[in-house]
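Entry:
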Amino acid sequence: MARSRPGDTIQTGMSSALNDLEVSAAILALEYKLLTPADAAAMIRKARKSNYRSVAELLLDAVEETALLKAVAKELSIRYYDPYSSSTEFEIIPTILAQADPAMLKKYSALPLRNKSGKIVVSVSNPNDLEMQDYLRSRYGEFYLVLSPRAAVQSKLASTITVDAQLMGAIQPTQRATQIITKQSNVASSPTQDWLDNILQRAAAEGASDIHFMFQADESLLVRFRIDGILRIQSTPIQLRPVEIIGSLVSRCPTMDAANYREPQDGTFSFAASGRNIDVRVALLPQSYGPTVVVRLLDSASVRARLDDMGFSPRHLREMRNLTGRSQGTILVVGPTGSGKSTTLYALLKEINAAEKNVLTVENPVEYRLPMIGQTEIRAGLGERSLTFPRALRTILRLDPDVILVGEIRDTETAEVAMQASITGHLVFATLHTGSAVGTYKRLLNMGVPSYLVSESISLIVSQRLLRRAHDCAVVEAPKPEEVALLQSLGLEVPGKVLHAVGCGGCNGSGYRGRIAAVETLVPSPELKLMVATQAPTTELVAQARQEGSFTILEDGLRHVVELKTTITEVSKVLAFDEAAATVL
């Protein structure tokens, strides 16, 4: 790969297509020893057996994105830059941003910046795109390139353009849409539609899982993004009528009635953002001041999550990979709503070669489409024609499955069918709402599942919560007295140095960006299985698990504190006051 000066044409032998850049990046993963030769050889063999994934895709899945981009930047002799870092070396200047068409910047994933010496620096995700370089040269003349993650560039573009539009006071019909977003061709243009399109684009770019629309007593509309599990308020132009915003949103769902806000409704639609398709689930509920609407964004990028990047310890990874590689057993991922159970299940499925095994799922609903995997969606409320979890599972067992995924165990019949399947030669993945790993046994027994079946079928329980990852603006200090007292009251060891969140422009002042999993795993021993079969009390099960070396989810949260990944404040907020997490596995 030939070297060049930043801003010049980069002669790398790669076309402007992102796939070509990915192939070269995959090669660099080996060259820079981000991947061992043995792992690379295994992935090449896997790709040869699979007709739907390239070697480059598999290699990239196995390498952490930041490390890979830094290797690419080094090879191209340019800087790596994270637009969401706390660095003040570069800044966004509205007048500089205005020199280019926002639609073109979004197309090329290019974010113009200014460095401290006043020179133009453009943060891009594909620096070898010659067409992009020609366009930037026509707008800025001389400039320098830095390499950045595509999602981060798109997110900064979306948020910056939105803020700029709001500062102008309104979305004017003569200056809308083509300067802000790419509109859906089947939706008529209007200020309301343009603003809604922009909100959807921004939410997707910023990694929001949900958008909340709620009417207030003064007839205004409260709009919030759920990012990293926390709701963040978004501004709404006063020129737009809230009822028109909701009407515009609901009209996108074919199964919803925009003229009826007196009854609960739900529907779906999709839109394109950052070069990928985003599926959307919409739920509407009538309330005092007007309908509350929640939009769930189902981004296929979530399915690309790797076990190695989710915060699991080496011990947890060994246990999960070992048991996922077996031909039978039940693997349960448990926790409350929003604890990342589905993401972990999909990451576990990625460890299985779907080209060699028949993998079938039963979900309600099917949130993400997976290649080479048969997915069934539950259909309730149709009388005899309803497709329930137990009915779907019984049919699946006649389709010669190797691996079965049950979206959620909600009743005794589903639990029994799934566990029977696991002891008759199938590997079963499922989620369950319960507070702890050991507490899973009590939950299943209370549901009426026979104790012998619970004892024999379960091979692994993963209980998890999500902690916000501290942003790089956090400072390393000695723990504060109140933090020392909290850890001591919980019987935990006090580390010498911890992170304290600060907040900066890169994290929107929150002090955090992204999330990691705090987990407890339980691989039942023969002794523990016997205790479950005889329905021993939960306290005895906990004592046995501790004796066998299991750690609590709270202790795993402290591991993230010691490794300077999150703060004691975050751990105490999510885990320390969770009685189940603090007292049982």
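The chain has 22 helices and 20 strands.
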